[in-house]
Amino acid sequence: MEDEPLSVATVESVGQDAIAIAFESPADFAARPGQFVKLVADVDGERESRFYTISSSDVEDTFEVTVEIDPDGAFGPILADLEAGDELVVSGPYGNAYYEDEPRVVVLAGGPGVGPAVGIARRALADGNEAAIVYRDDDPIHEDALADLEAEGATVHVIDAGDDMVATTTDVVTGEAGEQVFVYGFADFLDAATAAIDAAGGDPDAAKVENFG
């Protein structure tokens, strides 16, 4: 869909300078965890847009995106000031690195990649499937959601941005039939993650990868 009005349902803090925004799903909206949408807002009379990945398990009634706020940015502070009932415009969904009912999911997430990691793991567990996350960030967010996922049976590793990923990736990449590895993050993280998949005996070329820039 293109330029569909979108109403805010809730806004929740999920860490320092980070929020999860739940929007009321438009009637014809269909998306999978791991896909992303374009949000559009008026900023000082100009139309501004940014892309955010879905972090909810489904989009049946509402869908969630996770936003890391740059206080000096043009768009993030607008989102941080949203309240229930406010409206934006949405287009999408976009992207082909998303959950497709795989029996086991392994998500390697750097920085804002934790958003789709949480969404995919939530959906996999809700479907009765297995989930594992390796999340690398010096200032982790979504810690409550990650703790909930771990309590529900997911394997979760949270490591510092400078830490080597091989050991944690080796712990979660099993090579079992039906296992799907996902990678979400910026380019330098993608390089580290794909190298770790290879070192763990996995196939980096078979991973579903989304590059945030």
What is the total domain count? 2
Assembly level: single chain
| Total of DSSP H or I helical runs spanning 4+ residues | 5
Based on CA atoms alone, the radius of gyration comes out at: 17 Å
Structural class: alpha/beta
Give the distance, in angstroms, between the N- and C-terminal Cα atoms: 24 Å
User: Can you name the CATH architecture of the largest domain?
Assistant: 3-Layer(aba) Sandwich
Strand content bin: 35-45%
Low-confidence stretches: none
In short:
With 213 residues, the protein is an alpha/beta fold. The protein has 5 helices and 11 strands.
How would you describe what is shown here?
With 213 residues, this protein is α/β, with parallel strands linked by helices. It has 2 domains: 4-94, Translation factors (Elongation Factor Tu (Ef-tu), domain 3, Beta Barrel), CATH 2.40.30.10; 104-211, Rossmann fold (3-Layer(aba) Sandwich), CATH 3.40.50. Helix content is 22%, strand content 38%. It has helices spanning 76-80, 114-126, 143-151, 166-172, 187-199; strands spanning 4-15, 18-24, 36-43, 46-53, 62-68, 87-94, 104-110, 130-136, 155-159, 179-185, 208-211. Strands 4-3-6-1-2-5 form a 6-stranded antiparallel beta sheet. The chain is globular, with a radius of gyration of 17 Å. Keywords: Dioxygenase, Oxidoreductase.
How are the elements arranged and paired?
Blueprint: E1 4-15, E2 18-24, E3 36-43, E4 46-53, E5 62-68, H1 76-80, E6 87-94, E7 104-110, H2 114-126, E8 130-136, H3 143-151, E9 155-159, H4 166-172, E10 179-185, H5 187-199, E11 208-211
Parallel strand pairs: 7-8, 7-10, 8-9, 10-11
Antiparallel strand pairs: 1-2, 1-6, 2-5, 3-4, 3-6
